[in-house]
Each structure stands twice: as structure tokens, then as C-alpha cells.
Amino acid sequence: MAERVQQPPAKRLCCRPGYNTNCRQGQRAGGTLCGGSGAAQGGSSKTQTPESLLDISARKVAEKWPFQRVEERFERIPEPVQRRIVYWSFPRSEREICMYSSFSTGGEESGTSGENSDETRLPFRRGIALLESGCVDNVLQVGFHLSGTVTEPATPSEPELVCSVSVSFDRCKITAVTCSCGNKDIFYCAHVVALALYRVRKPEQVKLHLPISETLFQMNRDQLQKFVQYLITVHHTEVLPTAQKLADEILSTNSEINQVHGAPDPTAGASVDDENCWHLDEEQVQEQVKLFLSQGGYHGSGKQLNLLFSKVREMLKMRDSNGARMLTLITEQFMGDPRLALWRQQGTTMTDKYRQLWDELGTLWMCIVLNPHCKSEQKCVWLRQLRRWNSVDVCPWEDGNHGNELPNLTHALPHGNPDLSSRPHRTVFTRAIEACDLHWQDTHLQRVITHDLCTHTHTHCPHDNHGSGGALFDTRGWPLWHEHVPTACARVDALRSHGYPREALRLAIAIVNTLKRQQQKQLQLLRNHKKELLHKGMTSVTNMEGWVGHPLDPIGTLFSTLLDTGRGDEEGGNTFLDFSGSMCSAKRSEPHLFPAQHFLDDGQSFVALAVETALIGLGQQRVMPDGLYAQEKVCRNEEQLLAKLQEVELNDALVKIFRKQAVFLLEAGPYSGLGELLYRESVPMHTFAKYLFTSLLPHDAELAYKIALRAMRLPVLETTAPSGDLSRPHHIVSMVPNRYPRWFTLSHIESQQCELASTMLTAAKGDGRKLETVLESIQKNIHSSSHIFKLAQDAFKIATLMDSLPDLTLLKVSLELGLQVMRMTLSTLNWRRREMVRWLVTCATEVGVYALDSIMQSWFTLFTPTEATSIVATTVMSNTTIVRLHLDCHQQENLASSARTLALQCAMKDPQNCSLSALTLCEKDHIAFETAYQIVLDAAVTGMSYTQLFTIARYMEHRGYPMRAYKLATLAMAHLNLSYNQDTHPAINDVLWACALSHSLGKNELAAVIPLVVKSVKCATVLSDILRRCTLTTPGMVALHSRRNSGKLMSLDKAPLRQLLDATIGAYINTTHSRLTHISPRHYSEFIEFLSKARETFLMAQDGHIQFTQFIDNLKQIYKGKKKLMMLVRERFG
């Protein structure tokens, strides 16, 4: 609260023409203590005495009448009467003071210090501490003005602070505050709280004076002059300029001050025209909201804004007019948020938390305009205000960034899907605007909310029709209320918000009874016309507007109203509704209790009715709304409602309700999300069914499984909807057959479907029949491979718990799900595929050897050839698997035979990737190994790369098959092509290895491979390396480990080395010319070194020296333009 040091201006002019000076001369001008004669405020007296008629009357007048009206009504008011009116005009409850000085709600019991460290920092708590520490002094009440000083004790970091505090009040409300502390906040500072509570708790210690104008009336001229002169003397530096100015104006006949009757008095109370409301610093409210919005959700700003909204609700509950005033200030700042225009311009959506703040804003305006005692003039002001905000371009839409397809709040839901292009967008204020057309004058509505059950008699005709809406009472004489359900529930919320919990409870019960009656009528209609409804694929209720996830949260409102009452959390109202136009006060005593027998039949409870209401709403079949935010809200509200339900402990009565509602949901056809007839775009029931399943399982397992299995459906993912078979229990109807709906929350929905299935699998452990049923449901309804894989893993974990023997039936379910995953992902890309394959082999191992043999027999439907050989067969053949399965020799051989068969089949299908694995797996079987080798040879001509062939060739050499390795190496060389500049190619090592292998086998093998090398390799450095290695040892006389012997070396003048030498020299010549074409000066030194290596190769020939000299001479002639380079050539080579 921005407390200002200067005094507030006087509210009205005061003069008393009815009094004459003679009657005032002897009257006492001094003050008396506030307690005076009569009842002491706060009840400090230990003895109880009857309250005087003067005090009773003065208290009522002080609560309702502005003091000016009292003065105008009576010509002369006795001083004792004035004193009692002034005394009773100060607030008597600490609850309102707490409300305006802290975020947390509280009442008169809040006087004790809070243990929470955060609470102790609240102004209200700090004010109490200052009061109880004796820091309040110099308290003086002059008329309707209270002043005093509050001393803030010194701290190690701050000196002692003495604050001057003043408070103006009227009709039991603080209307203005000032404090010299300079604190700026929405709420009253601790010093204001301390002074106000001092007056509330210790009224007998406060000296009370009449308004200063009354005291001045009692003075004669000499006394007035003395009074003014003393006042100026004491405060001459502050008031002397003002005093002189006023004196000049008064002495001037034509001055403005002489044109008005009377003079202002800041202590004289309110005028007739003053609005009677608690002091609220509007500027600080605006600044704080603007600050919170600018922080964009950081630093807890979202929480602070929600606390402000809670403060508005608290004000509404106290029937404080500042609730609407504060919400108006908040809304103006929200509408002025610069991010709205930016988001609209960029086409981006606001954050989810910010969006929820806008939702709460719209809901609060609904509560305000639905105030049962709102005056029509005030409602018109709000309507104009709401329409102004609604017309702003950046005003957020009700469903996020998508057009809303929902009907008008006050109209019945239309059938079909009308043209939506012409319908304007609905904003967050649209429903509040529509609610301005609602009223509370309906006779039956008044009867519903003003009469308890015990007051109803059977004289009310249960078949008395209320227009076309249905009966006014059911067969038991209970009142019904036929209205658009979200609208009716908005009335309940409004009644609760404005402090009418009893009336809200009555209306909520009537709405729930209407819903239950509608359930029975729907079930009866379905039983009578089931075939017709299924055939037409229609329903008499078009659930375009779901109750769970609705902007008005109707089910949440009913549930909280009933549950809070049942738990005793609902505060009793201190007034009751009187539709004659006035508010009647009830006697304020103990918190009001709501006995169930006054509202419900015998044996019923509020908690049971709340639970049944939630089940009705959650089970409603409704269409998934459009837009990301609206869909997320459906999921969020459902989870919030279920979380509240889970807090309720089930008893026999609640289990009975669960059974009743579960049966209805299964039999209710198109009216239930768990019925036989399901729209393709209906909101799935997975989360709700999981809750029902776990709740019913200990009491009625068969019913629990029926619910869960029925809820597994997810027709939106079905490619086509069945049309001809009407006898199927999962008949699906598509409302929009040509449109694939955009379900932004589909991933979350599928995960919930998976959770439901996992819950059933866990519960069905040990029951083969149920496991088989659950498995069929999973295979039919779940379309995501990742979720089926998760279920397979879950089943495996449950089946192989360490504290028990493996559950073979559940293991088989796990394996079956794993096999389905394999089939689903076989032809699609999935980054978890290798993990899935490895897991499946592990699962099959746990099931047994027959499962492993089975997956190898049908590998082509489950795995790629690479997976089958490199993962499946390899794992099956490992020692770990053999030990784990405790196989005998016969079983090992059968498993190995299957693995070899698989390997050969894979090698035939994909020789490039499977040949090596096939050879490895077939090593111990000669026939199989030869078959695999032949497959490699057949594929080597056209289907395999040199890299694959070199790899297999090295494997053959390592296994002791050098001739086969040589054969494969020559086939690999035929596929290779190394150009002149590829001197770092990865295949170089393979080429060198192949030549070394050929050299080790003998002259014939080397002679055969050298033509292949000459044909495939054009890189001079590689060829010279091969040539050098071949001249160091004798072919066939050197082991592969390069140990020398004394054999005869091969001649470079004869084949095959002569061919290799000529090819090497030719490669050097060609490479030299190629490099000189685009050579730059920075590569000259490198080029000279290259020529030096070339000379070494040239000199290996008999006439090599001559050839190299001619080569150099040719270079000098051809490239004589490169003078610097040729100079370097001459320096090195002559």
C-alpha cells in the first residue's frame, strides 16, 4: 500500500445550523475513552452485561448509514449518541484487516503468531508482533479518524524507526491510510496493521473525541482565536503559509471559500455520495501486476499473480466491492501486456502457465457478473467493460489460438456441425458477457437454493413440468434444475464465491440429481431403442461440449462443493439470500454446519455424492476439442479430478457407487465413453479406466476387467471405421469421416493407454485366461511399437521378479508382445531396433530353448538378415546362453543346426552383410562351411564390394585357409580402383596384405596377382612400396611373419616384377605431369621430394639412370615457364 504522509482531503463540508451558541457554552469539550459506558468492544470485560439499547442502535446505524445522513435526518443528535456511533464505526473484525495486509486468508483467529518464517514477514503478522511488543503509542481517535505512532525496534542493520500512522474509517471499513514509513505495496504496512489492531483489541484504551468540527462548534470567538493561534505557533513552519492564504481568502468577500456553506472536516465521516469500501491503492495494484507480467513467469511471478486472484476470490467471499474493482485493475494490466501483440504478430502461442492465468481471469469475471445481488446498473457497467476488452484484437481466445466451436452459454446444444466460418471467435470474456443475460429471478431456482430437503413436501408435484426442460422434482420430491450444465455449475461457483455456501450446496445437489435422473432416462432409452441407435450411429445428446476440460470446469465445481462440505472445509455463510431485494443477516455464531439429513436422503453423504458426480463427468462421451491448449486442458483437468478422487478413502458405500456407475458406463451406449457406440473423435477413457480398474479390482475383478478392456480402444488411430458389422461390441462411428483429426496430445494419450495395459498385465499375473484376454486387447488396440515394447519389458520384469519363480504364462505374453514389435518395426526405421532385438533374444532365452528355436525358424518375419546372424544366432550360440539353458549335447546340436541353417539363409539373402557371420557360425560343420564359402564366391563377382571381400579374405587367412584367402583377395582386387592421388586410401593396407599373401604362397600366385595390381592401382607411391617389398624376399620361401631365408630373389628384368616396375615408373611420370598442372609455390619443396622418390624407383631398372635423366630434361623443356621450380629441379637433379 502506498501510504502517503500528507493527510487525505476531507470528504464533506460540515456545519451545524440547528445548534445555537447558547446551548453549547457549558458543554464539555474534552474526550472520553472509547469504551465509555456500554459494551466494551472486543469483549474484554470478564462479566457479561446486557447490551444497552443505545449501543444496539448505534452499532446498526454505524454499520449502514453514512454519518452525513444521520446529521441530515435529525436536527439535533445528543453527544452520547454521536460518541457511540463514532465508536461503533471502526471495524470490529480482524479478518478484513488481515485480508488487506497479507496474501494468506485469515479471520479473527489469525491473531496468533505464525510459525512459518514466510508468514512472519507478512505485514499482518509483523503488525501483530509490533502490537504485542508494545510498539504502538499516542493513539487518538477524533471522530472517524484514528492516529498514533508505531515504533519499529532497532536491528543490527537498521536504526529505530518511529512511524506516524493515521487511519480514516466509515461504516466499519477502513477508507484511507497514511504512514510515514514510505512503504509501497498493495497491502497495508505493518504499522497500519498494528494501529488498527490496537483499536480493535484495546478500544477501552483509546481516547475518543467527536469530529473536530463538533468541538469547534462548542467554542466561542475567543476560544477559536486562541485555538488557531496556538495551532499556528506549534506548527508555524508547516502551516503558517497555508494559514495566511486561508485568512486572506476568508477576509475577501468574493473569494471562492466564502461561496460555499460550511468547511471541510477530515474527521467527520462519510458523505451520502461516498462509496463505502475498504481502502485499496489502485496505483500499487496496477504497478505490481505490471511488474509480475514483465517478469514473464520468472522469479515466482506466476505464483504471485495466482495469489492476487485468490485475493479477489477472498474479497468476493467477504462480499467486498473491492473484489470487482481489483479484478478490473488486474484485467487492464493483462490487456496492456505488450507480449500479446507480439505473439499475435509472430503467430506464436502464449505459455501454458500464462494461458491458465487468463482462464482464471475469465472465470472470475463469470463469478462477478453472476453475483445474485448485483444491481442492474453495476452489471451494465461491467458488460460495457467486458465488451470493450472483448473487442480488442489481441484479446486471447477461449481455446487458445483456435476458433471455438462451442455454442452460446445460455442456449441448448445444437445438433450437427453448423458452418463455423461465420461464427466469431470466442474470447476469455465471452462467457462472462453471455452470463450478463442470466438472472436469479426464476421461481423454481429460488425455491431450489432457499429450501433444505427437510422443508420439501410431497405437495410439490413431481411431474410438474418446467417448460420443455423436464420435471421440477423427481419421484422422491427432490428438486431438479434443468439448465445447460456448465452454466448451472457456474451459478454454483458464483454462490460459493460470494459467500453463500448453503445455497451453492442446494443448487449443486439439484444439478447432480438432475444428472443422475438423466442417466436413468438415457439407459432406459437405449434399452428400448438399442438396435435403432446402433444402426443409425446416432445419439440423442450431441456431446460436442465435454464437462471435463470445459472452460467453466462444471464437474470440478460440483465435486469441490460437495466434497468440501462433506469434509467440513466449507465455511458457513453469515447471511442468507432474500430475493425480495435485501440481504438478511444471520446471527454470527459458531461456523455453520450442514447436516446431511437437511440436504440428502437417509444413508447418503456429501462425499459419496461428490464421488458419483466425478464418475458421471469423467465417463461422459465427449468430442476431443480442437487446438493444442484445449486438448491439453482436457488431459490436465481429468488428471486433477482423478488426483482428488484418489484422496478419498473407499468404503462399502463408495464401492457400491463405483459398481453402479461402472455398470451404467458399460451399458450406456453412445452416452458413455465406455459404451458400445464410440465416436472416432471421442476423448479416450484410458486414464479414467485405470482409476476405475484399480479401485474395483479388490471388490469386483470381473467388472474391473470389463471396464479396462472396453477402455483400451483408440479408434482415432484406426485407418477405417467398421460399418457393416453392427454386432461387434466396439462399433465405431466417425462424425467427420473425411478428416483426420489433429490430436496434439496423441503421444500423451497413447502413453496413458500403455499405462492402462501395463496395470492390467500386472494384475493378471498368474491368471492365464485373463492374460490371454489382455494380450489380445493390446495387440488389437495399441498401434505404437515403442509402447508395445514397453509393455513387453514390463511384463518381463513382472514375470521374473527376484523373490519368486518366473511366471511362464506372463513370460510368453512378454515374448508374444516382443514378436509383435519385431514384426511392426521390421520394415521401418527405429533407433531402438538393436535394443529390441537383443531384448527379444533375452526374453526367448528365459522362456526356453523351444522359443529360441522358434524365432530362428521364422527369422525372416522378425529380423533383417544382418540382425539374424550378427545378434540372434550369435547370441544363441554363445556359451552364456548354453549355460543359462542347461542344455545337453543333443539340445546344443539341434540349436546349432538351426543357427547354421539361419546363417546360410541369411547369407543367400544378403551376402554382403551376412557372409562373414555365416562363415563364423558354420566353422564347426564342414558341409555348412563349404556352402557358406561357395555363397561368398558366387556373390563376389557382382554383389560384394572389395572391402567386404578383403575382410572375409583376412578371416580365411586367420582361420588357416590361405589359398581361399588368396582367391578372395584376387576377387577383391578386381573391384578396386586406386587413382594416382589416393595415397591415403583405406584399401592400401588391404592391397599390401594381398600382395604379401601372394608373395608368401609362391611365384605363380604372385605372378597372377601383379597384373591385377597394375590394373587396379595407379598410385605411384603404393606401387613402389609393393615393388620394394617383393624384391626383399624370395616368393614362397618367407613365412607370413617375414622371417628371411637364403632363397634366390626375383629379377626385376623378368616377369612378373618387370611389369610391376614399368607400371610404377609410368605411374610416377603420369603423377608428375598431373601435379605440375596446378602446382603452387608453397608445394615446390614437397614436389622435389616426390621426384627424389621417383628417382629411386627409376634406378631399380637397368637403364633407369638414362630414363630418369631424359625424364628430367623433358620436364625442363615442357615447364620452362616455371623458372623457380625448374631452378630447384636443376639444383637437385642437374
Automatic annotation (TrEMBL):
<dbReference type="InterPro" id="IPR007527">
    <property type="entry name" value="Znf_SWIM"/>
</dbReference>
<dbReference type="InterPro" id="IPR048370">
    <property type="entry name" value="ZSWIM4-8_C"/>
</dbReference>
<dbReference type="Pfam" id="PF21055">
    <property type="entry name" value="ZSWIM4-8_C"/>
</dbReference>
<dbReference type="GO" id="GO:0008270">
    <property type="term" value="F:zinc ion binding"/>
</dbReference>
<protein>
    <submittedName>
        <fullName>Zinc finger SWIM-type containing 6</fullName>
    </submittedName>
</protein>
<dbReference type="GO" id="GO:0031462">
    <property type="term" value="C:Cul2-RING ubiquitin ligase complex"/>
</dbReference>
<feature type="domain" description="SWIM-type">
    <location>
        <begin position="163"/>
        <end position="200"/>
    </location>
</feature>
<keyword id="KW-0479">Metal-binding</keyword>
<keyword id="KW-0862">Zinc</keyword>
<keyword id="KW-0863">Zinc-finger</keyword>
